[in-house]
């Protein structure tokens, strides 16, 4: 906040600059054929945390990872025959496939919100394709708008809610579809429609609301052990996740940096679950900026399980 946002027309120079920013761990707004995305290196947890910071998202929803082709997609996710057929028919294009994560995927757990699945898309827009090639990284990208605001279909829409919060907007004019991609899950031998969009997928059954619909945080990873919030010290049977002055067994950020804490959150929860103590306690996290999203996720992790 407070910095100025550059808006530059799509071309080779701006792609080189955008790739430099991505390598430095910063998010960049880039047009796709659906809506403008706010893209960052999906293998860099702190870069992904900066997406949430810029959007002011109050919770960590899993993000779509953009890759150049099906071969790159297969390094991140496992495609069954139905998923592969959809990819062959519609990629590059406005279709996102949710598939099980592959071994050795390298994607930051903040991108998948700790889920065992990943949403992947091969975009068609030349600007996003050029940035994928120039950065050489899978790019996590939600729509480039502040949380709760309308999805951007023009560069000026991005500025309307993110001006001063990001370094660069690549201007590619109005997007072709103006509507987010269709999302289909292929995780269990069936095809489920998670979000309707520009592509109609025959044979995809609408997802049952409350079970797998996008953004339904109940379906997200929660530790198997009870979790206590705002703990300044641990009982003998508790594994303490620290922050700032509370060291704990494993700190989200010894210096109290919320970007670092967000980047480490899901990995820390996995480690705490595996640590062998009966319960988990978490140090107080300030309830401002990214701390709101961290506390939202922790509150859900601490809520009674179904
Ligand atoms: O057209 C689009 O898809 C745009 C452009 C930029 O690619 N992106 C976009 O991202 O709409 P976003 O973050 O606004 O929406 C991502 C959706 C969310 O509803 C999220 O819940 C869902 O994808 N999602 C991501 N990973 C998932 C997963 N593993 N399982 C279920 N849903 C997932
Ligand atoms: Mg969105």
Topology diagram in text:
Layout: E1 6-9, H1 12-23, E2 28-31, E3 36-41, H2 45-55, E4 64-66, H3 70-76, H4 81-90, E5 95-100, H5 109-112, E6 117-121, H6 126-135, E7 139-140, H7 155-162, E8 168-171, E9 182-185, E10 192-195, E11 205-206, E12 227-228, E13 238-242, E14 250-251, H8 258-274, E15 279-282, H9 290-302
Bound molecules: threonylcarbamoyladenylate and magnesium ion.
Magnesium ion is lined by residues 142-143, 151.
EC number: 2.7.7.87
Catalytic activity: L-threonine + hydrogencarbonate + ATP = L-threonylcarbamoyladenylate + diphosphate + H2O
Protein name: Threonylcarbamoyl-AMP synthase
Structure characterization notes:
With 306 residues, the chain is an alpha/beta fold. It has two domains: 6-218, DHBP synthase (Alpha-Beta Complex), CATH 3.90.870.10; 227-302, no CATH class. It has helices at residues 12-23, 45-55, 70-76, 81-90, 109-112, 126-135, 155-162, 258-274, 290-302, and strands at residues 6-9, 28-31, 36-41, 64-66, 95-100, 117-121, 139-140, 168-171, 182-185, 192-195, 205-206, 227-228, 238-242, 250-251, 279-282. Helix 8 runs parallel beside helix 9. The chain is globular and about 55 Å long. The protein starts with 5 loop residues before the first strand and ends with a helix. The model is unreliable at 213-220 (pLDDT under 50). The structure holds threonylcarbamoyladenylate and magnesium ion. Threonylcarbamoyladenylate is lined by residues 32, 34-35, 37, 61-64, 96, 98, 112, 115, 117-119, 121, 141-143, 180-181, 183, 194-195, 214-215. Keywords: ATP-binding, Cytoplasm, Nucleotide-binding, Nucleotidyltransferase, Transferase, tRNA processing.
């Amino acid at each position: 906040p407070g910095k100025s946002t550059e808006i530059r027309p799509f071309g080779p120079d701006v792609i080189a600059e955008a790739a430099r920013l991505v390598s430095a761990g910063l998010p960049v707004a880039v047009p796709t054929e659906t809506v403008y995305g706010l893209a960052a290196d999906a293998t860099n947890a702190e870069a992904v945390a900066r997406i949430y910071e810029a959007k002011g998202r109050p919770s960590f929803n899993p993000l779509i990872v953009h890759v150049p082709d099906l071969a790159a997609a297969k390094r991140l996710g496992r495609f069954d025959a139905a998923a592969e057929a959809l990819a062959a028919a519609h990629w590059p294009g406005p279709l996102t496939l949710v598939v099980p994560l592959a071994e050795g995927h390298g994607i930051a757990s903040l991108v998948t919100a700790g889920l065992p699945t990943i949403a992947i898309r091969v975009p068609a827009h030349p600007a996003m394709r050029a940035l994928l090639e120039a950065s050489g990284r899978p790019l996590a990208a939600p729509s480039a708008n502040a949380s709760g605001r309308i999805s951007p279909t023009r560069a000026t829409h991005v500025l309307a809610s993110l001006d001063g919060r990001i370094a660069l907007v690549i201007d590619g004019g109005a997007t072709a579809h103006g509507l987010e991609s269709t999302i289909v899950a292929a995780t269990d031998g069936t095809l489920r429609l998670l979000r309707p969009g520009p592509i109609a997928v025959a044979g995809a059954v609408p997802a049952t609301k409350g079970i797998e619909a996008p953004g339904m945080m109940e379906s997200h990873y929660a530790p198997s052990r009870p979790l206590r919030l705002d703990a300044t010290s641990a009982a003998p049977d508790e594994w303490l996740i620290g922050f700032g002055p509370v060291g704990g067994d494993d700190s989200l950020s010894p210096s109290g940096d919320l970007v670092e804490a967000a980047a480490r959150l899901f990995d820390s929860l996995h480690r705490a679950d595996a640590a062998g103590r009966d319960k988990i306690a978490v140090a107080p996290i300030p309830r401002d900026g990214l701390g709101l999203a961290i506390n939202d996720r922790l509150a859900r992790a601490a809520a009674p399980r179904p």
